[in-house]
Amino acid sequence: MVKVITINILFKLEDWEHRRELLVQGLAAxxxxxxxxxxxxxxxxxxxxxxxxxxxxxxxxxxxxAADHAGMTYGIAILxxxxxxxxxxxxxxxxxxxxxxxxxxxxxxPVVLCNGHYxxxxxxxxERDRQIQIVLDYLExxxxxxxxxxxxxxNGTPETSAIERMRQRFTSAYxxxxxxxxxxxxxxxxxxxxxxxxxYRSLRTFLFNRTFIPWKGTLDYIFVSSAWQVHDCRLxxxxxxxxxxxxxxxxxxxxxxxxxxxxxxxN
Length: 267
Description:
Helices cover 26% and strands 31% of the residues.
């Protein structure tokens, strides 16, 4: 059995000292083998800090070359209980974003994990489609038939063209287990934004959706290749601190318990 988690931990450092404790509590309870993080703050090394707290000895971090969040340097990271056999970064060729691919050996079986934080835009967008195709082409060429798990913040809701493109090769673990995607993974019902942030998000919602009704939707996924059987998949980190409206992040996490049922490679 392999347990994998994906979670966008939010690069902003406001309330980080409180949020990080919620993240540790929620992640530690799962005892995952692999954790994929998006929006790792590289100034504070938030991914490394989480790995240390969780007792996960192996960390692969990929910095994004473009600091498009108010000059903040950030990236993505994978935490693992197993050493990395291979590591690679994929240039997604827009918005300064990259994906990462690692291979670990679990019980002598290669397991490939691809972690990405994809093009931000409400609804379908050709740039996100292009990024997804870059990743799919890379996995087909470099990974072949090895068991693959592709996770991350896709910044696309289930009906968008990029997610449909992912479904052509992979299966959403959550949808496979529940029959449909979650109602939403972002944002939490009450997010700890200040007034300026609230005004900005309200204006952005109106410009894109022509409504001031707060948006929420599913942006985060765990996709698996045909080699995998899904035994469980659910949302995690969905509760605020006791007596507070502070959530671990502005995204919920997803965890999946998987096993290999179709061995595409032999050792």
